[in-house]
Amino acid sequence: MRVLCKDIAGSNGQEVEVKGWIHRIRDLGGVCFIMLRDRSGMVQLVFESAPDVTLESVVSVEGTVQENKKAPDGYEIQVSTMKVLSRAAADLPIQVNGDPDKLGIEAILDNRVISLRNPKIRSIFHLQSNILAYFAEYLRSQDFTEIKSSKLIGSGSEGGTGLFEVEYFDRKVYLAQSPQLYKQTMVASGMERVFEIGAAYRAEKHDTPRHLNEYVSLDVEMGFIESDQDLMDLETGILKHIFGRIAEYDGSILEQWGASVPSQEALDHIPRISHDEAKAILSERLGKRVFELNPEGERELCEWALEKHGVELVFVNAFPRKKRPFYTYPDGMKTMSFDLLFRGLEITSGSRRINEYDMLVENIKRFGLDPAGLAGYLEVFKYGAPPHGGFAIGLERFTQKVLGLSSIKEASLFPRDRKRVAP
Amino acid sequence: MRVLCKDIAGSNGQEVEVKGWIHRIRDLGGVCFIMLRDRSGMVQLVFESAPDVTLESVVSVEGTVQENKKAPDGYEIQVSTMKVLSRAAADLPIQVNGDPDKLGIEAILDNRVISLRNPKIRSIFHLQSNILAYFAEYLRSQDFTEIKSSKLIGSGSEGGTGLFEVEYFDRKVYLAQSPQLYKQTMVASGMERVFEIGAAYRAEKHDTPRHLNEYVSLDVEMGFIESDQDLMDLETGILKHIFGRIAEYDGSILEQWGASVPSQEALDHIPRISHDEAKAILSERLGKRVFELNPEGERELCEWALEKHGVELVFVNAFPRKKRPFYTYPDGMKTMSFDLLFRGLEITSGSRRINEYDMLVENIKRFGLDPAGLAGYLEVFKYGAPPHGGFAIGLERFTQKVLGLSSIKEASLFPRDRKRVAP
Prior knowledge:
The structure is a homodimer of 423-residue chains. Chain A has 423 residues and is α+β, with helices and mostly antiparallel strands. The first copy, chain A, is 31% helix and 27% strand. The longest helix of chain A is centred in the N-terminal third of the chain and has 23 residues, at 119-141. At the A-B interface, strand 1, helix 2, helix 3, strand 6 and strand 7 of A face strand 1, helix 2, helix 3, strand 6 and strand 7 of B. Chains A, B: Its main location: cytoplasm.
C-alpha cells in the first residue's frame, strides 16, 4: 500500500512503499541520499550505495521510515528494494531540481513538458486549480448557475476584428472572444445569475508579458442590478472569498513565491474612482497630462490605492461611451462600466449592459454595426430582459498577479502567442 | 427588498417585492391572475383588472402575500403596484409557457434564446451545472488537480482526420479533439492525478441524435495505476458520487422529466465484460453474428446488464489493438481499454496509456504515424512517466441519458452541428 511523501511521519518505524520521481541524487560513497518526489512533496531515501537510476526516472520503493533530525522534514526511508518503473534518459534538456528563477521564460516554455516537473513551477497550477474551485464555490453559494456556451460563433460580437477564423465544413466561423452574448441570453432566459469558465480567443498580434491569444475567462453575469455598483459589490465578494481561501489553504505556495494576498480588511476598502478622477490623479502624480489609462497609468493608480487606501486594487468606472463596446449601458456621455486594476494590471472589465431593445438597436448603429447581423442577439431583448450586467476575470492575469510572476505566459500551462503553438 | 418566488410562503401577510417574467395571464374579468416566474420558481399575482402587460415582459411587483389554498403552492400576492422593467413584443416566436414536448427539436433549437425560458427546458441546464460541480467535487476529494489546456494544437493526436482547421496568424492550427496528451503530460509532470472540463471538437459529418461537433469533455487522467480496472473503479466512484448527489438535490428536475438515476447499490454491480464477451452476448441475444459494437449492440448490452445485473450500465473492455488509438496500452492482441455504456449509449472511452518510450515509438509507427511529428509528446515519456491512464465522459451525452432526452442537442445550450452555428 503506497504512502505519500507528506504522510511519511505518520509511519515512523514502519515498512512502507513510496512511488515517485528521482528528484536529486547525492552519492557520498558509503551512503547515497536520493530525494523522491511525488504529488504531495518529497522524502529522503537512504541507500548503502548509489543505485543504477537517473534523475527523473519513476520508481517504486520499499523501506523503513526512520526519524532523522538532519533529514528534510525530519524523516527518511532506509530502502530495502527499489524498482524502476520508467527510466529517464540522462540528457534532461533543462535542470528540473534547480531554481526556476535561473531559467529564462523562453527556456521554461520551450521545454514545457519538463519544466512543469519543477515543484515551484508546478505549484502555479495547483494554485490555479484552487482558484477555479474558489471562484465557482462562491458563485454557487450566491445562487449562480454554471453554463457552457459555444466557442464557435457565426460572427464577432464586437465587429469581427481580432477574431480567429475556423474552417467549419463548408463555411467560416470564428473563435469567440467572450461568452458575453450567451451569458446575457441566459440571464434573460430566467437563470438570472450565471457564470462560465471557458477559453476565450483574441487574434491580437501584440506579444507582451500581459497578453495571451488564448486564455481562460472567468465570466459572470447577473440580472436585476441597478448599476455597475452592484457588479463591483459582487466582484469584491468574489475576491474576498478567493483571497480568504488562498490565505487559509495555499500558504505553502505563496511562501514558495514570496507572495501574499490582500487581507479581508483591505478588500473592504477598494476605492472606486471614475475614469475622469483616475486621469486627474495620474496627471498630478506623473506631472503630465494623462488622456487614457495605459500600462504606466495602471501601475501608478495601484500605487496610489496602496498609499491612500492600503489596498493594491482599484476600481475605475464611468468610462466614456466611445471607449466601451456597443452593448454598454450609457450614463450621459459616460457608461455604467468599470475596470478592476490589481497590482498594476487590469484583471477585469465589466459593465451594466443595455437591456432595452430600441436603445440597443440605436447603439449598434451608432457603432457602425449592422443590426441585421445581430438579429439573433437582439431577439433576446425583444422579448423581455431584466436590467443586468457582468464582468470577466482573466484567470492567467489573476494568477500572475497573485504570485508576482513576471509574465502571464508563466501562468498558462500551454500558452499560445503569436509564435508559440506547441507543446 | 426582493423576495424570491420560492420564499413567498415565509412572508405570509407581509408586503413584499417580487421581480421576474410574466409567464401566464388568466383574465377572468373581475379578477386577473398572472403567474410570475423568477429563477427560483413561480408565484400567482392577483390583479383587480388585467394590467397592460405582455407575456415574457419583465416586471417588478409590490403587494401583500396571502394564503389561498386554490393558488399554486398555496400562496398568492395581492398586487398594489407593478412596474414594467422591459416590455416583450407580443409576437413570441414559440410558446414559452406550454409543454416543450409539443415543440419539435428544430423549433426548440431555431428559437433557442426563447425556448430556454421554458422552465422544463431550462432545468436541463440547472442539472448540467450541478453535474459539473459534482464531478469536480469528487475528483478534488480524491486529490485530483484541475487543469486548463490549450484547445489550439499544431497537429492532431490521432493523425489529423476529423479536425477543424484554424487560421492562426500566418499558419494553420487545429481545434483539439481531446486534451489527452496534455493530461498525460501533467500526470508525468508529477501532478499524478488531473482532470479537465473543457470543449472538444470533432469535425465529423454525421448528424445524429448522439453526436455534436463541439461538446464538453469531462476528462480524467491518473498515474500509478496497474490496469484499466483501476480506471473503471475510479469511474464507478465518480458515478456513485454524481448519481448520489443528483438523487439528493435534484429530485425536482428528475421529476419534471419523469427520470430517475441508478441507485448506489446498483452502481456496485456494474458488470465488466470483454469486447469478445460482449460480442458473444449480442450474437446470442440478437440471433446473428456480431462483429462490433454498433448503436443497436450498445442498446442491447444495456438491456442485458439491466436484466442480469439490475443496472443500466456496463463496462466493455479488452478491445482489439486495431480498434483503439496508438497510445493505448497493449495486452497481447487486446488492449487495456474500455467503454462505459449507459442506457444504450457509450458515454465514456478510456484506457491505460503506453508510458514506455520505446513501446510508444514502435506503436506510433505501427499506426502509420510519424514519430517526428509527435516529438514534443514523446519527450514526456523519454524522461520518466509513471504507468497511467484515463478516460473522458461526454457531458451532453451523460445529461441526455440521465434525463432521457431524445437528442443530445437538447443537452447543449448552443449546439453546433454540421448545419447549425447559431445562435
